[in-house]
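hey m, so remember when u said the tokens were messed up on ur end? i reran from scratch. heres the input so u can diff it against urs
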Amino acid sequence: MPNIKPISDLRNYGEVLRDVAVGSPVFLTKNGHGRYAVLDIEEYREYEKILAWRKLKSELDKGRSSGEEEGWIPASEVRARLSERYSG
């Protein structure tokens, strides 16, 4: 069951933080509506990894679609382009 508290409970933030654990964030409400989430730092790091993976996968999918629609370029040409771009 989600742990939901009004933001005014932050006056005693020690008690709010005591309820935060991996897999058990505390959700803070403002005027009766969800506003903030307090996460354990390890859970936040996992969240960042998931976001990075989604972004990478999206870019890889775009590349695959581009290759399938416009044709693939040889690996030697890719190396040459990267060398031009990143060799100072």
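this time it looks ok to me. The chain has a mean pLDDT of 95. if urs says something different then somethings off w ur setup not the seq
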